[in-house]
Records
---
Amino acid sequence: MSFLIDSSIMITSQILFFGFGWLFFMRQLFKDYEVRQYVVQVIFSVTFAFSCTMFELIIFEILGVLNSSSRYFHWKMNLCIILLILVFMVPFYIGYSIVSNIRLLYKQRLLFSCLLWLTFMYFFWKLGDPFPILSPKHGILSIEQLISRVGVIGVTLMALLSGFGAVNCPYTYMSYFLRNVTDTDILALERRLLQTMDMIISKKKRMAIARRTMFQKGEVHNKPLGFWGMIKSVATSAPGSENLTLIQQEVDALEELSRQLFLETADLYATKERIEYSKTFKGKYFNFLGYFFSIYCVWKIFMATINIVFDRVGKTDPVTRGIEITVNYLGIQFDVKFWSQHISFILVGIIIVTSIRGLLITLTKFFYAISSSKSSNVIVLLLAQIMGMYFVSSVLLIRMSMPLEYRTIITEVLGELQFNFYHRWFDVIFLVSALSSILFLYLAHKQAPEKHMTP
Amino acid sequence: MASLDRVKVLVLGDSGVGKSSLVHLLCQNQVLGNPSWTVGCSVDVRVHDYKEGTPEERTYYIELWDVGGSVGSASSVKSTRAVFYNSVNGIILVHDLTNKKSSQNLYRWSLEALNRDLVPTGVLVTNGEYDQEQFADNQIPLLVIGTKLDQIHETKRHEVLTRTAFLAEDFNAEEINLDCTNPRYLAAGSSNAVKISRFFDKVIEKRYFLREGNQIPGFPDRKRFGGGTLKSLHYD
C-alpha cells in the first residue's frame, strides 16, 4: 500500500518537473522561434523531468522520506529510463533530424539515421577502453557499462564548465578589469564605421552603374558561366567585367573592416554599460562578491593540484569534517546525527539548485549564440543530451559530498563503479580548463585596449 | 555617376528571414548563392528610374541598408545598430511566412527604427509596445515583404495570406509575398515589381519633392511644429 502512495508521489513530482521543462523550453529557449515539431519539446522536457527526479531521490534519501525499498525501486527504474533516453532515444532522434535536413537523403532517412546511431554507439563504446572505470566482474551488457561511459562524458563536461566558470565569474564581477571607455571613444569609432559604410556605398554605386551600362549594351552575363563560357571569357574578356572584379575585391575588404568596427563598437557600448552598472549599489555588491569568488577560485585550483600531485582522494565529506572540527577543536557539543542530516540536506540542496540553474543559463546562452531557424531543433536535442549526461554525472560526484550513511544508496544503485577515478578525472580536467581559461582571458584582455588606442 | 541623388532605405527583420537574399535580388537581379550571417550592416545599391516612362523620368540611387540581428539583442548591440538609423527615407520590413514570431517581431523592429528619431524631440517614448497612433503619424513609407512563399503548402496559403494582409494594414503599407530564390517573382512587369517600383517612387517623392527645396527630411520639421501638424502633407 505504501508503495502505491510513494509511487503516486513520485509520478506527481515527475509531472511537475515535466511541466517546468516545457515552460522553460517555450519561454526561454524558443522565444524567438516557432515550435514546429512538438516531439523535440517533449523529448527535452522528458529528459529534464527524469534528471530532476534523480536529484529529488537524493533529497528524499537524506530526509528519509518514503519507504526505503520503494526508493530503491524508483532509483533503479529512473536510472534505466534515463539511460534509455540518453543512449538510445536522443542520439537516434538527433541523427534523424540531421538527416531530414539534407534533401538528398530524405527518401531513406530512417536507414541513414540508424546508420548514424550505430556509428555513435561504436564511438561511445570505444570511449570506455582507455579509462580504468570498470572492475572485471561486469558483463558486457550491464547498466554499469553504460553508466560508466555516460559518467566519463558528463564529468568532462562538468569539469570544463566549472573550470571556465570559476575563472570567468570573478573576471566579470570585478570592476578592476574594466577598461576605461569614454563617450569620445565611442563617437570616434562610430564615425569610422559610417565612413567605411560610405566608402562601400560609393564603390557599389560605381558597380551598379557599370552593370547597368553593360546590360544596356548587352554585354552582361546573367547566369553562372558553364565550362565553355569560362574558356570563352578567357579569350575575349570584356574590360567592364574586369573592373568589376577589382572593385568587388575592394568592397569585400571594406565590408570585412565594417564588420570589425561594428563588433568593436558593440563591445565598447557593453563596457560602458558595465562601468555605469558598477557604480550602482548592485554593481558594488557584485564587485565585492567578485573578490570573494576569486579567492575561492584560487583555493579550488590549489586543492585540485594538491589532489593530483599527492594522489589524494578525500575520504570524508565536508559536512562530517566540518562537524568534526567544531566538535574536536572548538569544543562545541551538539547532536551530530541530527545536525549532519540537516546540514547535508541544505548543502546538497544548494549544490543541486545552483548546478541546475547554472546549466540552464549556460545552455540558453549557447543556444542564442549558435542557433538559427533551420538548426534550432538539432541544437535543442544536443542540449538535452548534454543536460542529461551532466545531471547523471552530478549524481555520481555528489556522492562525495554526502555523509557515509547516505552514500550507500548511490553505491548500490549505480553499481561498483570506480568512483575515485571520476573524482581524479574531474580534478584533472578542472585544472586544465581553469588554467587555459586564465590564459585565454589574459590574452583577450591584453589585446583589447590596444585595438582602440589607435586614433 | 556620383552626381545622381540618393535615398536611404532600411531593410529590417529577424535573423534568417532572407533579408540578404532579398537585397541581392533587388540590386543585382540574381539569386544569392551562399547566404551567410550578416554581422553589423551590409549595404547594396539599386539604380532606380523614378517615374519611368514619363517625361519626368530621373535616375536615382537607392541604398538598401540590410541591418542584421534580432530584436532581443543586448542593449549594447541595439545602441550600435542605432547609428544606422539616421536620416532614413524608407523602411522595408521583412518577415518569414513560415515563422509567425518573425511577423510579430516586425512591430518591435519598426519601433526600434522609428524611435531613434522620435526620442530626441521628447515625443512619445514607448516601452516597445505597438501603438497604432504612432504609425498613423509616421512619415516614412513602409513596405512589408513576406519570404519563403514556396515553403507554404497550398492548403495553408489562404490562411497565411490573410494574416499578412492584416499585418500590412496595421503598418499602413503595401505588402509583397515572394520567394527570394526565384527571380520570376520580381520579373519586370509582374505585380510585385510594380509594387516595389511604386514604393521606391513614393520614397523618392517624400524625400525630394514634398519639401519644396528644403532638403532636410521630416523630423526636424516635427521638432519645430511640436508634432502632428504635418498631417496636411500626408497623402494617403
---
Amino acid sequence: MKRTRTCGKSRDVRVPGALGSCSPQRARPRGWAGHLGLRKGKLTLLCDAKTDGSFLVHHFLSFYLKANCKVCFVALVQSFSHYNIVGQKLGVSLTAARERGQLAVLEGLRSAVDVFFRPREQLHPLQFLREASAGDLQPLYAFVRDALEPVDGGEDAWRCPVLLVDDLSVLLSLGVGPVAVLDFVHYCRATVCREWKGNIVALVHDSGDAEDEESDVLLNGLSHQSHLILRAEGLATGFCKDVHGQLRILWRRPLQPTAHRDRSLTYQYKIQDKSVSFFAKGMSPAVL
Amino acid sequence: MLESLLALGGLVLLRDSVEWEGRSLLKALVKKSALCGEQVHVLGCEVSEEEFREGFDSSINSRLVYHDLFRDPLSWSKPGKALPGGPLEALRALDKKTSSGPATIALDSLSWLLHHLPCPTLCQTLHALSRQDSCPGDSPPGEQVRVLGLLHEELHGPGPLGALSSLAQTEVTLSGTMGQASAHILYRRPRQHPTHQTQWFSILPDFSLELQVEPPLESQPRSDPHTPSVDPTTHLTFNLHLSKKEREVKDSLTLPFQFSLEKQQALLRPGLSQATSHIFYEPDAYDDLDQEDPDDDLDV
C-alpha cells in the first residue's frame, strides 16, 4: 500500500452549526457555520494534509442520517463496526439505518474478498481488483446508482440522496488511475448531483509529496469539480495538544463570480470525545 | 480586453488553476461572441448544460448550442444518453457544424479531452478545427473560426501543456493577488513577435468584464516624520565607534585560524617549528608494550 492509515482512532464530532444542509429552508445559521449554507446538488471535497480528516467523514455521515437522507456510503478504509461505534457516539445507529433501508454500505475491507468468489459475469463493485490492467470504476458507479436511485412512482421515504466516500485516495493505492477515479466522480456528479439533486461528500488525502503526481492530479481534478472544499491541515509548527489542526473552507464555482471576499475562511479546531470545537486562529482557550 | 482576445481568431487557450478559475472568463467570452451575432457551439464535458447556461439571458442562450458530453461521455448508462462516437467524434463533428459563417467553439474543458484522448490526436483535431491550415488570405476575416479552450494547468505535465500552447494564437494565464484576478495574455500574431500584456479584471454577475487597476503592493508602515530619530549610542559607557587609525589596524590584522600565505610558508619551512612538545608515556603494570606493528603481516 502506498499510504498508511492511522489505526482506527475514534474521532468523534458534533460540529456546532450546520456544516451541511439538505434544503436551504431547514438550515439554521448559527454563527460562522450558517453561511456555509450548502445547497442541493453539490460536491463537497474533504481534504486532509498532514493530519487525519476522517472526523469530517463521521460528521457528515451522522449529519445526513439524522437529516433523513438516503445515504450510500462507500467505506473503503475502516470496517463497518468502526463507523458504527463512532456513529453511536454521535447519536446515530448505522445498523438500524441499514436495516430500515436508509443506508447502503459498501464495506470495502470485507467485500473485497468476494470479488474472487463470484462468477465473472456478476460484476462486483470492486471488480477492478480482479483486472490485470488498470480498469475503470463503472461497476462501482453502478452500485452507487442502484443504491440511490429514487423509487419509481410513489413518494420516497427519504429526502435527497447522498453519496459519501471514504476515501478516494485508497483507490489510487489499489491500482486505479487518477483519470478513472475522476471519471467515477464525474458520473456520480452527473447522476446524484444533477439528475437527483443530491449531494456528494468525498475524502481525499493530500500527500504533500511533490513526486506523487497521481495524487496531485486526483486532488486538483477533484478540486476543479467541487463546489466546496474543506481542508483539514496539521499546524505548520507541529503537534499541539490543545489545537489539533486548522480547517480551511474554500468555496469554488460561486454563483456570483466576483464574490471573492467570502471565498475562504480558516478556523482552528480541537477534537474532543463527542464533538469538535472550532475557534478563530490563535484564539484557542488554552492560549487565551 | 475581450475584443482583443477574440480578434485574432484561431485557438485561444485559457489556463486556469484551482485558486483562479477560468470558467467565468470563458463564459464572458462566449457572451461577447454571442452578442456579436455569432453562433456559439459549446462542447460541455465538465459541467451540465443548466449550469453552463446559468447567468445568460435568453438572447444569448438562443445563440448557444450546447453539445452535452457531461451526462454520459463514456457510454456507461444503460439507455445510452451518450453522443454517438464518443468524445473524439463529437469534437470532429463540430468542424462540420461550423463550416459556414463565423463561429465560436468553446471547449469546456480541454483538460477533460486531454485526459480521454491521446495528445497528438487532440492537437491534430484542434488544428483542423481552428482552420489553421488555410492561409489567412483565403477566408475573409468574417468567416474565422474561433476556438476557446479552457485548460486546468495543474492537471497536466509540461509536454501536453507545451503542445497546446504552441497551437494557440492567444494564451491567457489566470492568476491574481489579494483577491484580485489578473490575466497574463500572450498574443502570437502572424509574422510578428509575440506580445505580452497583463490585465487586472473582474467578472460581473452577468458575465461582462470590468477592468481593474493593478492593486498596490503592500506599503511598509512609515515612521512618523515629526519625531526625531534618537541615536542610541550617545550615552553609553563604552565606545562603539572606531577611529580611522583603529579601523586600519583592525583591517590589517590576520586572524589566527585563517590560512594565509605567511602561515603556509611557516609550515613549509621546517626547523623553527620543532621546538614544541614531547609526549611522555608512563606505562602501567598491565600494559603490553609490543613494539611490533600489528599491520605488518598485511600484504598491502
